[in-house]
Amino acid sequence: MTDENDKIARNDRASRESRLKSALRENLKRRKTQARERAAPPDPSRNEDGPLDEGQAGKAGG
Predict the structure, then answer these.
(1) For residues 17 and 24, what is the distance between their CA atoms, to the nearest angstrom?
(2) pLDDT for residue 42
(3) Rounded CA Rg of the chain
(4) Residues near 43 by Cβ (< 8 Å), separated by ≥ 6?
(5) What DSSP assignment string belongs to 33-57?
(6) For position 1, what pLDDT does the model report?
(7) Would you give per-residue pLDDT tens digits along the chain (62 residues)?
(8) Distance between CA 56 and CA 13 in Å, rounded?
(9) How far apart are CA 5 and CA 13, in angstroms?
(10) Is residue 3 within a helix (H) or strand (E), and if so which, with residue range?
């Protein structure tokens, strides 16, 4: 009976370690991606305030 409990405990421990390894790996990937994005030069085509020529649409008609 204790042998079966030991096997179950080992399986539970191995399963937990596997889940933790997987979670750590995904976290590391996410952090590397974030670091790359922060280190990259800003993209001038991405203006978070809106389009650059937003005020020109009303002035074109006269």
Answers:
(1) 10
(2) 80
(3) 27
(4) none
(5) HHHHHHHSPP-TT--TT--TTTTHH
(6) 60
(7) 678 888 888 999 999 999 999 999 999 999 999 999 999 888 777 666 655 555 555 555 54
(8) 64
(9) 12
(10) helix 2-39
Amino acid at 31: R
Residue 31 to residue 49: CA distance in whole angstroms: 26
pTM: 0.53
Q: How far apart are CA 41 and CA 48, in angstroms?
A: 15
Tokens representing 61 are 């008609």
Residue 23, both tokens: 């979670």
**What's the residue count for the chain?**
62
The two tokens of residue 53 are 């020529």
